[in-house]
Amino acid sequence: MATSDVRDILQISRPAPGAEGTPKKSTKPEKEKKPEGISRELFQLIGGAPPVAFTKPTYKQKPNLRQKAAHWELREFVHPGRTDQLALLRWTKDINNNITEDDLQEFQNLEVIHYTDEEYHKYLLDRDWTKEETDYLFDLYKRYDGRFMIIYDRYDFPGKRRTMEDLKDRFYFVQRKIIQQRPGQDKAEIAKYNYDKNREVDRKRNLCMLFTRTSEQIKEEEALLEEYERIEQNEKKFAKEREVLIKSLAFQDISTTVKRKRSMTNGSSTPATEIVTPVLSVSASESLPKKSRRASASSVGSSAVVEAHPPVEHVRREKLPPGVIVRSQKIPQVKQGAITKVTKYLQEAGLGIRPSMPTENVCAKWIELQKAIVSLHDLKRHVEKQEHELKTKKQVLEKTKAAAGGSSSSQNW
Amino acid sequence: MATPSQRRTKGVTIVRPIVYGNVANPLPPRKTQETDHTHKWTVSVRGVNGEDISYYIKKVVFKLHETYQNPLRTVEQPPFEITETGWGEFELAIKLHFIPESNEKPVPLYHNLRLHPYEEDGTILSANKNKPVSSFQYDELASVFTDPTEAMYQILTQHNSSSTLPAKNTNQPYSLQAEQDELKLIEQTYRKVQEQLRQYKERMDTATNELQQVKSELERLRTK
């Protein structure tokens, strides 16, 4: 398979001729968009290095064994990079076409922009690099078709030890400089020769680190990652719960204010006194009670009937199913987590765990009270949590401030 | 077969208050030597004023602790009560069966038999140790009979006057006054809870705001 095929598969654009740019180019887009499944914070920690360990391996598709095997053929061709017409062999898939120049493009067109003596003295002087060494580098570059691996391997300039990054940095710098300075050069070409040495060094170091992690470290990282996810999820859950709670509280607020207003119009000042109840009006007379009781219970009766039972504090009443019920048994259970708190609260207020006079009004009020106590309990928990978080965040802030004041570069990471 | 009188009277709810519970008396010491029973108790179901409730209740089944002989006791005539001796407290299941005209299913009640005069914190004062105990619960067969059958409706309305709460406490603790008192207490507590809720909500708001500030500050420092 030709390297161009590999590039196609990996979706890497054709490298700049002459520049062995694959690592540089492939990391670039990866830095910009973070891979899925990794949170932003963690991605910052990794620092743009390819996430070797963090993407789960996916299984390859099964090969389609029933398909007929593609036909490959061994073919002769002449390498354009050679002058001696040596016939070389190469496997190709496409039988009909001959190997074209295009297929062999990576072997040729090694565009190197050479500097003149004058240009060198004007723009390219460097304390570390002599002209002889730069010449030597360019010579090697040409000889090995810009393959920096080989250039680095063969590099042997007396008195100098160069890393791969040194070599690349110098080479690309020269190219950029000349494109910039020489008239008639396409300035857009500069982008092809971008090279950030420090970044590259960092990247390789990080890769090394990633590669040399022990299995314990990998496990720890995974555990941390899991923990982090858990925390984040908890936070989300917590925020959701809080929202629901606040909404329900707001709803209660509205309903109480509405009630207050209604009681004002009814002319009584305190809600407590107005709960004169028609509960057992059944006895009052024979005919009236059944209608009016019903009316007050369903709250849709005609105005005349309502007047007969004026200031009933209206708690929303459920419509009862036909049949007999025991009133106190219709009081809903407090949710499991809050039972003890609610019981304690009720006892402190001088009430029992169930109403002692479970009449219709008492039960309705009781249910409301129970609900309110449960929300109070919930809210209390949330407030405590929130305040705790505030405290820890404040501490973090202090630390960050101190760190920022002390050394501005390395922050709390 | 639903006879016409079995048809339900729509939109009617009739309430019947009832009281159920037990009294207990310590047995004289000499008797305790023969058995290990220490108390004599009576569990009963009755109307709030002690009135007859048999016009709508056909029978009451008391389920005693399994260690009693025939723990399932059925009482078909008023007064609906069982007297027994024993040494321990347990939860009684009481099942009310209604007269056939009502066409209603039986309704269960639960009562914790009480023999000892507990104080509020659960201790027993030695001074009260041998005093008789009375433990009753008020309940409403509330909306007893939402949409009662026509026959039942007639029966119930004929007996209206007897089954109502008295205005004031007389010889028993359940009255309209007691209801008002409890309502007041609940209302007070409710307002207290609301007040606390408001306070907590304020605390929540300030905490949330501050947290927001701290967070944005942090964010600013980090991105700098």
UniProtKB/TrEMBL annotation, chain A:
Composition bias type Basic and acidic residues, residue spans: 27-36, 386-401
Pfam family of the protein (one): SANT_DAMP1_like
Entry keyword annotation includes Isomerase: no
Superkingdom, natural source: Eukaryota
Coiled coil: 211-241
Role this protein plays: Component of the SWR1 complex which mediates the ATP-dependent exchange of histone H2A for the H2A variant HZT1 leading to transcriptional regulation of selected genes by chromatin remodeling. Component of the NuA4 histone acetyltransferase complex which is involved in transcriptional activation of selected genes principally by acetylation of nucleosomal histone H4 and H2A. The NuA4 complex is also involved in DNA repair.
Protein name (Swiss-Prot/TrEMBL): SWR1-complex protein 4
Biological source species: Paraglomus occultum
UniProtKB/TrEMBL annotation, chain B:
Lineage top rank: taxon: Eukaryota
UniProt-recorded name of the protein: Protein AF-9 homolog
GO cellular component terms attached to this protein's record: chromatin; nucleus
Keywords linked to the UniProt accession: Coiled coil, Nucleus, Transcription, Transcription regulation
Organism name: Paraglomus occultum
One GO term (biological process): regulation of DNA-templated transcription
Pfam families, per database record: YEATS
Annotated Gene3D superfamilies: YEATS domain
InterPro entries linked to this entry: YEAST_sf, YEATS, YEATS_dom
Domain YEATS: 8-159
Keyword Nucleus: yes
Cellular localization per UniProt: Nucleus
Record carries keyword Cytoplasm: no
Principal place of residence: nucleus
Any coiled-coil regions, as ranges: 176-224
